[in-house]
């Protein structure tokens, strides 16, 4: 930000970016071009230059992938393998991810603008661990024995749901891939994945590693392409038994509609958010102002659970806001390969322009801009300064709509009852943060907030064993944890007569 030297323009000289290895569709165990022969560009948000030309799959390609997945499910080995063999293959998959951590981290950095040092140290190793978590659950899928009335024996079976269509977003291409694909494969399902057209590179690489690990042909397929064509073909396909989607609420509606109009396939949706980050006046300002900043700026604000509505109790409001501004001015934006950088570029031009539009809208509607609000970098790349607004009314656009960028709105509140009401006054219900040293306040607020996840005195506390999903227009269904695995299973009830049993 000008005199603060907010932008750091270091290039990736210390990291060797090799040639992109995989640009074609992965169907039935091999890479192939799209039937149409079409390709599309994937662009580096650091430079605005084309990284590679990717096969543009559409209806015909999705049909091929679904046929392969259906045959693999109905006739192939994957759902019929003993669980211990599925575990062995998935564990090998995780090991291969660990062995290729640098290359995978580079792909997500150049494709999505993610911080290379975070991807290398956290994202990719974490992805391997997610696969291991679900692998470990593969032999722990249990039904129940039921005490039926009369001379009957009843039990339930937990069966894989079948062919799963997975449609993932661009903000966390690796994590979204493994949390859905890992659970589906562990359950015994077969999968057709459509990665976001903005960030297709790592999904294709994971398909390659899955093949090396021994995942049978047809069990894992990746069709790159656009949402309006390939994505719609998956959502509407009669040969798919479930669609698992993460993305916008608007697209989630379209997927539900397509699923309903086709074969009434099962759907799970993890959608948008406008999460409240609530700070009571009994906490340390230094500690929690930093946490509030991270809750907004992590991953350049491109995260569905960003704590973008920061409610601060009036007793510490002024000091808290001053600290936020002070810290934001030292937040380094720049080339994501530079380890000193805290924020890379927005994913693409469209998202960059969308964020800037929201900032202008906030100013037009009367919110006060304290810091940021402008492009930075002085050249190529989709970089935006960390932006803080105050004097934001609850009905302003920036208070209601998901921005998906480095933009924070700060509100003042007086009482616990007031902030609960205001925090819940949103169509979304994905997550919330409650910062207080008072256990009674923590308990009351966490139970009163209508959100799928509530973090107390922490934020972004994700874990393999912690289910994640939303309330209201943030969707339904869970990723992660055993609930995430159960989303790819269906329950069959079995009853059989018992004759001349010595007990019932």
Number of helices: 15
The count of DSSP E runs of length 2 or more, i.e. the number of strands, is 24
From the N-terminal CA to the C-terminal CA, the straight-line distance is 76 Å
* DSSP helix fraction: 25-40%
Work out the strand percent: 15-25%
Low-confidence stretches: 1-10
In round numbers, the mean pLDDT is 96
The main β sheet shows up as:
7 strands, mixed
Rounded radius of gyration (Å): 24 Å
General form:
globular
| Secondary-structure content class | alpha/beta
Strand order of the largest sheet: 16-17-18-14-13-20-21
Outline:
By secondary structure, the protein is of the alpha/beta class.
Write up what this structure looks like.
The structure is a single chain. The chain is of the alpha/beta class. Helix content is about 35%, strand content about 20%. Helix 1 (about 60-75) runs parallel beside helix 7 (about 225-235). The termini are far apart.
Topology:
Blueprint: E1 7-8, E2 25-27, E3 30-32, E4 39-44, E5 49-55, H1 59-74, H2 83-99, H3 101-112, H4 116-137, E6 145-146, E7 152-160, E8 163-167, H5 173-187, E9 190-194, H6 201-213, E10 220-222, H7 227-235, E11 242-246, H8 249-261, E12 266-270, E13 276-279, H9 285-297, E14 309-313, H10 317-328, E15 333-334, H11 349-364, E16 368-371, E17 387-390, H12 397-400, E18 407-413, H13 416-423, E19 428-429, E20 431-435, H14 439-448, E21 453-456, E22 471-472, E23 475-476, H15 481-486, E24 489-497
């Amino acid at each position: 930000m000008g005199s603060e030297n907010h932008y750091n323009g270091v290039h990736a000289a210390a990291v060797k970016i090799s040639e992109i290895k995989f640009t074609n569709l992965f169907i039935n165990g091999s890479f192939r071009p799209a039937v149409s022969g079409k390709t599309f560009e994937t662009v580096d948000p650091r430079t605005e230059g084309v990284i590679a030309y990717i096969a543009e799959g559409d209806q015909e390609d999705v049909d091929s992938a679904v046929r392969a997945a259906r045959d693999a499910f109905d006739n192939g080995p994957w759902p019929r393998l003993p669980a211990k063999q599925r575990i062995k293959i998935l564990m090998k998959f995780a090991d291969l991810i660990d062995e290729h951590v640098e290359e995978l981290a580079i792909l997500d950095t150049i494709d999505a603008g993610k911080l290379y040092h975070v991807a290398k140290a956290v994202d990719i190793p974490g992805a391997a661990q997610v696969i291991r978590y679900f692998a470990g659950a593969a032999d722990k899928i249990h039904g129940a024995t039921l005490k039926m009335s009369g001379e009957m024996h009843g039990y339930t079976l937990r069966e894989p749901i079948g062919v799963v269509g997975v449609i993932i977003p661009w903000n966390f291409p690796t994590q979204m891939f493994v949390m859905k694909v890992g659970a589906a494969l562990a359950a015994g399902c077969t999968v057709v994945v459509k990665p976001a057209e903005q960030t297709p590179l790592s999904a294709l690489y994971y398909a390659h590693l899955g093949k090396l690990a021994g995942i049978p042909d047809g069990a894992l397929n990746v069709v790159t392409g656009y949402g309006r064509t390939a994505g719609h073909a998956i959502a509407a396909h009669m040969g798919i038994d479930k669609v698992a989607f993460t993305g916008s609420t608007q697209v989630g509606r379209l997927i539900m509609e397509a699923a309903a109009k086709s074969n009434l396939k099962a759907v799970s949706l993890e959608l948008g958010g406008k999460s409240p980050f609530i700070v009571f006046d009994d906490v340390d300002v230094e500690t929690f102002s930093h946490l509030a900043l991270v809750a907004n700026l992590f991953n350049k604000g491109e995260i569905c659970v960003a704590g973008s509505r920061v409610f601060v109790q009036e007793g510490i409001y002024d000091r808290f806001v001053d600290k936020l501004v002070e810290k934001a001015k030292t937040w380094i934006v720049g080339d994501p390969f530079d380890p000193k950088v805290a924020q890379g570029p927005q994913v693409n031009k469209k998202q960059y322009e969308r964020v800037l539009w929201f900032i202008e809208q906030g100013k037009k509607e009367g919110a006060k801009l304290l810091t940021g609000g402008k492009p930075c970098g002085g050249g190529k790349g989709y970089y935006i300064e960390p932006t803080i607004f105050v004097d934001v009314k609850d009905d302003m656009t920036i208070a209601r709509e998901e921005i998906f960028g480095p933009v924070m709105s700060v509100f003042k509140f007086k009482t616990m009852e007031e902030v609960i009401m205001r925090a819940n006054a949103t169509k979304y219900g994905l997550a919330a943060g409650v910062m207080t040293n008072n256990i009674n306040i923590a308990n009351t607020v966490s139970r009163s907030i209508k959100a799928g996840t509530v973090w107390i005195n922490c934020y972004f506390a994700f874990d393999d064993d912690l289910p994640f999903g939303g309330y209201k227009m943030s969707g339904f269904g869970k990723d992660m944890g055993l609930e995430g695995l159960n989303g790819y299973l269906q329950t069959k009830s079995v009853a059989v007569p018992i004759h001349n049993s010595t007990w019932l």
